[in-house]
Amino acid sequence: MRSSVIIFPGSNCDRDMDVALKKFGFKNQMVWHNDQSIPKSDLIVLPGGFSYGDYLRCGSIASKSKIIKSVIDFANSGGLVLGICNGFQILTETGLLNGILQQNKFLNFICSNVYVKVKDKQNKYFKDLKKDLLELHIAHNEGNYFCSDDELKSLEDNSQIAVTYCGVDGTENEATNPNGAIKNIAGIFNKNKNVLGMMPHPERMIDKYLSGEDGSLFFKNILDNFK
Amino acid sequence: MEVTEAVAIEHGLKKEEFSKICELLKRIPNLTELAIFSAMWNEHCSYKSSRKHLKKMHTKGKEVIQGPGENAGVIDIGDDDAIVFKIESHNHPSFIEPYQGAATGVGGIMRDVFTMGARPIANLNSIHFGSPQHKKTRNLLRGVVKGIGGYGNCIGVPTIAGQTTFDESYNGNILVNAMTLGLVNKNKIFYSKAAGLDKPVIYVGSKTGRDGIHGASMASATFDDKIEEKKPTVQVGDPFTEKLLLEACLELMADNSIIAIQDMGAAGLTSSSVEMASKGNLGIELNLSEVPCREEKMTPYEIMLSESQERMLIVLEKGKEEHAKKIFDKWNLDFAVIGKTTNSKKIELIFDSKKVAEIPIDLLAENAPIYDRPWKKTKLPQKLKFDKDEFKSLKLSDCLKKILSNSNISDKKWIWDQYDHTVMGDTIQKPGGDAGVVRVHGTNKAVAASVDSSALYCFSHPLTGGKQIVCESYRNLISVGAKPIAITNCLNFGNPEKEKNMGEFVECVEGISEASKYLDFPVVSGNVSFYNETKDKGIKPTPTIGGVGLIPDYQQMLTMDFKTEGNLVYVIGKTDGHLDQSIFARELLNEKKGPPPTVNLFNEKNIGETVLELSRKNLIMSCHDVSLGGILTAVSKMCIKGKKGIKINTLKGLTNKYEYFFGEDQARYIIEIPKDSLKKVNDILNKYSVHFDELGTVNGQSIEYKDDINLPIEELADAHKYWLKKYMDS
Lengths: 227, 730
Known about the structure:
heterodimer, A: 227 residues, alpha/beta, Rossmann fold, two-stranded antiparallel sheet, 22% helix, globular, B: 730 residues, alpha+beta, seven-stranded mixed sheet, 27 helices, 35% helix
């Protein structure tokens, strides 16, 4: 499976994503934001970081960068686009995903392990995933997902909510919501479910010496579904 | 403006220093030249009060590639890999403007490291605040933590460990010390020594603005009521630009275009150009009209003194200008040829086609003043005679809970949750352990790092205190299974013009030096911060040690959490029950006098090496050093982290339980041993004649000691974990 990771000035999880993708067998290449086109890919990843310093608003300048048109075209033609953390913020700024990511409820950056519940498996990311709960890792200042009532209803009606923050036992409530996101939302799909944006970083959870290993399941599952 | 003695004094120079400048120059300097002298001759850049004593530091060792004197120290960790590291203070600016002060402290130290060609792989920090009751403390802490996080998180370098303390002596002078480790191929290290004539001098990075002018002089003076007015001397950080600068510099460093490179830190363009020329024994000519400026009509004076951040000065090979410019253009950074190296041995500045300054380099560097300041020795305080009958009214379990929730012992998760500690995907020991550990990317090796200081011990007896912190750093590294290799130090002291403060400095340095020599734990970089004093009140002497160690196989890393029910727990090293200067004495007896615990370097080394051997042979499952708060505090942390209890054995003979459990004797560790390793462990301990006590067995969900203690781990954890969060929310 061929993947491309886009590097924006200020991206800082690009290498981590490259390492993770290659570890599980993706043929990955790095693509510079100023390039006109993306090499032939089955998956495009927008990595975490602080693209363009996140000045103005997180992800907003990146959403106007040269390469983005190719990403949008690729997504509209049904290609898999995955945005992690800053990548999720960029995807909402491009309009590929609904809603926005506001500053965390407690106004602090949070770096911590979290549990998320997989809400939908009818898609190429989570289909046949053996677990319903994943332990992942967040590190963000603006991960507080918000959208209008209509958008929320539409997300729910179309099963576009991908993952939600929860406790180790699956409880979803205020106590298990690290950043104040509406309905504990940690990640969402577009209507066709080929575009996925999520705040947690699976690439930081890929061996037992790190914070955990559930990120491995996520990547392997994408590969398995591709075969 | 005419330069007079009064103008010189306004620039922070002393009367005698101004006469000396006139004498050396054989004329009165113009204002720009005066500014250059003031920037180079202040304490921060010249080390004029400390240099004489710093020479005594132990700086050699077989792993040392570069000792003090460069942008950072470098050690060899095998297979052509080297670690570049340094710690630096940003105390004065952080008190005036906590967010930007702390942020630019982090930015500055990272630049020191990547200037040498290394990619930063870990950040640490040691931060010290006034009493929690002081009205400024909460806001300063919040600002500093946000500043450190804001900068480090954006760059994408994990913050893996740190230290936070509270003491009223920091009420008017907080301390912010930032440390960075970087990884470099040992054959591709870049230095700041210029070489060759007529080589282009290149300016890269951000534009020069009017921020930070006089920053280095501000950092070389004490504070008074008007410190708020000094806000404009604090620099403003832009981590995004630094990230671009990091990537661009590393890209240019991939080939041989760079002859020398130096970041523009304190005293900006002045200090970087003078240092590069001085080290290369060359002259340098700069055309200031070519310097990219952020603001209009900046004068040579302002350009030379600006401390705008995220800038570098490079001496390039001739003909490589276009190649280099392409890289900086790609990263959207300013690039300008602003001068050349010369054989004049002078710094010559041109502005608007006119020469505006001309100073022989040696007057600024080697001929800068050096002071042998008078200092006073601190006598070892008399050991206290505690009334042990008085202890009996204190319940052990109450004492323990009180100590665990003490501001200096309690958990600092509220802080490190705000630092990205996992980016780069190699953090295998997060903050909260004895040391942070990151893997050397793509290898089996891992590097451990810890920051430590013990102001209370150093205040009581600087010589012992100086030794103790080096030992504490050594122990923290061994506790995670790392072989200690070298240290960097940040020497935070009061006013060196006062004999007592100067004496504290001299004796702490002596202590550090003695211990580092004995332990073969050399000092490879560091920084001195004097004048941490407000309205005549100085801080307690606070030398901070940043230790770095190596774990050859990261699977052998140790953590402190108890692992398995039924395992035995030993205290390694002898406990005499030294209570003077302990948390127990301060918190429960309100007793602040007495000497710090004695440091026995033979024991430190012998016991440390023994514990390291146990870990290399995979005989122990967890390890934690015993420090502040003594055995019971240490063992509680192991229980809380491992979510497991311990049943403590009855103490032998006439041992006083308060002294045993809370004494702060040095050279001790607690280890967890699986039963089937017990014989081998005992054999090794006996072979090296290491004293040990069988403390107890990992058991259940409570700490139990006879009828005295029966505390569920959850209750202990509550006492330990929430003090800081509650304090910050209140």
